[in-house]
């Protein structure tokens, strides 16, 4: 490594293009790439990723999963690979120039050097098995949310208060509210009894709405979430700060378990957030809603509240 391989015969660069295209030339370029490898993604690059940048990456990962696109390609768009030029300039070029001089060839126009560089790049790329996932370890984390809603768009998923402020007893009784309550482990009837809400439903509600077998938060916590939503329109979601490698590995078409998480009221439009801890691990099904990352939001929860992020560290898996 770090030495230019010997030429197979004298004068091969009299016709550089013919030599480099020949089997012997291809073999020589392969040895050059073996001796001077290029790594597009190396682990030491991950020392300074900010939460904001990792949130943006997480958004690309989630979008790629939902849209059926290649996750690695989506990640590369956010974190481009290291260029070949620094490796060539600092490690390879001077050694190759010395070889050409010793071989008695002239390359006044640099055509031979450029041809060698092109061939070396192709060979080095073929030998490089690094990928963008190599940049991240368990301490590289992003804000991950799962919003309870059957709708794709955030605007269609909001809960609303009848008052000019959020109030537990004054929520509009809608399919969205029924859907959220079912995912928390409750029914509209139980909500009316706990809150005293007497508003009529906006439309007829499904009679066979799915409900979680056991509540993941208490009624006192639900009331806290609503009364502290700081907005008359908001979502209800799960929240945790999870390792990027775990998010990369998730299959969003299968059930996903948060080993630990928080239930939160979130206004994604105006930027409000309040959370309470769930009472244990929470498993969500694809039909329960959609994942989103801090990078999907104008203001992520950490932006809104200046959270002490280690408190929210958790694990997520299929």
Could you give a quick summary of the protein structure above?
Helices cover 37% and strands 14% of the residues. It is α+β, with helices and mostly antiparallel strands and 318 residues long.
What is the percentage of strand-forming residues?
5-15%
How many strands appear in the DSSP assignment? Answer: 9
Based on CA atoms alone, the radius of gyration comes out at 28 Å
If helices are DSSP runs of H or I spanning 4 or more residues, what is the number of helices? Answer: 11
Overall pLDDT, averaged? 90
Task: Tell me the structural class.
Answer: alpha+beta
Give the % helix: 25-40%
H/E order of the elements? HHHHHHEEHHHEHEEEEEHE
Largest sheet: 6 strands, antiparallel
Describe this structure in words.
- With 318 residues, the chain is of the alpha+beta class.
- The chain contains eleven helices and nine strands.
- Strands 1, 2, 3, 5, 6 and 8 form a six-stranded antiparallel beta sheet that branches. Strands 7-4-9 form a three-stranded antiparallel beta sheet.
- Strand 5 (262-267) and strand 6 form a beta hairpin.
- The radius of gyration is 28 Å and the shape is rod-shaped.
- 35% of the residues are buried.
């Amino acid at each position: 490594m770090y030495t230019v391989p010997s030429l197979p015969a004298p004068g091969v660069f009299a016709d550089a293009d013919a030599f480099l295209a020949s089997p012997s030339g291809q073999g020589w370029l392969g040895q050059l790439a073996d001796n001077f490898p290029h790594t597009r993604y190396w682990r030491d690059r991950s020392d300074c990723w900010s939460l904001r940048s990792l949130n943006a990456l997480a958004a690309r990962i989630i979008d790629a999963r939902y849209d059926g696109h290649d996750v690695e390609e989506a990640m590369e768009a956010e974190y481009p690979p290291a260029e070949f030029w620094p490796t060539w300039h600092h490690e390879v070029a001077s050694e190759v120039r010395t070889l050409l001089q010793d071989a008695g060839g002239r390359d006044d126009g640099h055509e031979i050097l450029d041809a060698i560089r092109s061939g070396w790049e192709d060979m080095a790329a073929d030998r490089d098995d690094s990928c963008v996932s190599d940049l991240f370890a368990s301490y590289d984390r992003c804000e991950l949310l799962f919003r309870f809603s059957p709708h794709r768009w955030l605007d269609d998923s909001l809960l609303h208060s009848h008052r000019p402020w959020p109030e537990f007893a004054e929520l509009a009784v809608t399919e969205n509210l029924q859907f959220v309550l079912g995912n928390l482990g409750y029914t509209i009837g139980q909500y009316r009894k706990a809150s005293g809400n007497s508003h009529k439903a906006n439309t007829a509600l499904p009679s066979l709405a799915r409900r979680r077998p056991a509540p993941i938060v208490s009624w006192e916590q639900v009331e806290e979430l609503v009364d502290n939503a700081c907005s008359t329109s908001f979502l209800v979601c799960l929240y945790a700060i999870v390792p990027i490698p775990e998010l990369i590995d998730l299959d969003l078409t299968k059930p996903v378990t948060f080993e630990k998480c928080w239930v939160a009221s979130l206004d994604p439009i105006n930027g409000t957030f309040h959370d309470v801890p769930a009472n244990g691990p929470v498993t969500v099904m694809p039909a329960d809603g959609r994942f989103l990352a801090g990078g999907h939001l104008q203001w992520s929860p950490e932006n809104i509240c200046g959270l002490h992020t280690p408190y929210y560290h958790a694990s997520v898996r299929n």
